[in-house]
Amino acid sequence: MDNRKIPFGPTYEEMLHPEKIDPQIRERASKAIQENEMDPINLFNITWKDESNQVRKIVLPKELTNVDANIVVLLGTYFPSGSHKVGPAYSTLIEGCVDGEIVPGDHTILGPSTGNFGIGVAYICNLMGYKSVVIMPDNMSKERYERIRKYGAELDLTPGTESDVILTLQRTYELKKDPRNKPLAQFELMPNYRFHRYVTGNSAIEAVKGIGNGRIACFTSAPGSAGTLAAGDQIKAVFPEAKIAALEPYECSTLANGGLGQHRIEGIGDKMCTLIHNVLTTDFVTLIKDDDCVRGLKLLQDGTDVLVSAGISPEVAESLKNLFGVSGICNILGAIKMARHLRLGPDDNVVTIATDGFDRYPSVLEDLGKRNLELENYVLARWLKDIFQAEDEKYIYDFRRGDRKEQLFKQKEKDWLPFGYKKEYLDEMRSMDFWDAEYDLCKKYDEKISQSR
After folding, report:
1. Which range marks the domain in which residue 100 is found?
2. What pLDDT is attached to residue 360?
3. Residue 265's Cα: distance from chain center in Å?
4. Terminal CA-to-CA distance of the chain, rounded, Å?
5. How far is Cα of residue 16 from the mean position of the Cα atoms in its chain?
6. Which residue, 235, 231, 215, is CA-closest to 223?
7. In terms of DSSP H, where are the helices of 50-155?
8. What's the pLDDT tens digit per position in 170-207?
9. Domain end marker among 155, 185, 215
10. Which pairing describes strands 243-249 and 349-354: parallel, antiparallel, or unpaired?
């Protein structure tokens, strides 16, 4: 057995409020993020906040969005490893450590993913001294695979693309029959829910202070594992009038109407209702066309002149580069669509998330170039109007009625009973008490983490 001491990291409270970290540790961590990405002290950089304890965010220019409401985007690219998914990866691993279920040297960590969570698992396991295997589809962007290998993880590739994430779950269930393999199962384990409800949700609430009326009218996120959607539970707890919209690819509308299909929005685990998706707080399911997200990324990345011509200042247009990936554009388009649908005004705030940045998508734009004969500025100008600014309220489904909730509960049963979960357990999820009890465990795990270090 490897007797190395596990390098314990932050509590949930410290990830939300990094100013509560020991000042010497925080200073070391701030230097390490610039100088040595693989120093374990970087665990203390897992937070939405910068060195001055402000939430990293951008309020999108209204010349881009063409809506009165403020679209506030939290920026995940500044997390260690380049994505906020490192947060739930760490939370799931650290909970297993303090519970004594995961031991360095004894266990290999499995990370089922379509990209960013797998990158986060590879990174966290490197920092914490674990061997890791990332299980993901074999048709994702090459940048994802390169980053995972860079962090020292093995890749176990399953057939298909983003829409075949169910195959990664099946492969994970096969591998975990070996007791030496411990999965950080983002689609079904509650640390993912806890991280996003506690850290992301409360960070979003802080992010709108001083913007508009200081409240959140709507929160939008593509489900992926549905971890990020858990932020909506905390937002609703503070702002009960807030609406939560889950965003799906138009090409694979499983939650909306049972639709199945392939799509190009990497980072969305679909063809399922994930186990940790609290459907009680999902008010709308909104469909976004996949190529709109890729084209939108092209515009923000390479269309600075077009944005300036639309009235955006050169400094702001330039600042939009490198902040977003394809799923981030999906979340932004969903936020714009919901702002129109809900008739929100200049005092209202819509919050969404940019999971990662552009660094893992150059090959996606290369593919876009191969599929489009023309990408000149006049084409990008048309995309600005057709994708971001069009008065489009199509494909918005209201899920506030009981029969719509039941549709999602039945989808969850269909997806998870075959993996051994009992209907009685799934039925517990029909009560908000279940989700609040899971959230309350943050305090217990904070005590355990503090004691362990």
Report:
1. 86-185
2. 86
3. 12
4. 20
5. 16
6. 231
7. 62-65, 86-98, 116-128, 142-150
8. 888 899 899 899 988 778 889 999 999 999 999 999 99
9. 185
10. unpaired
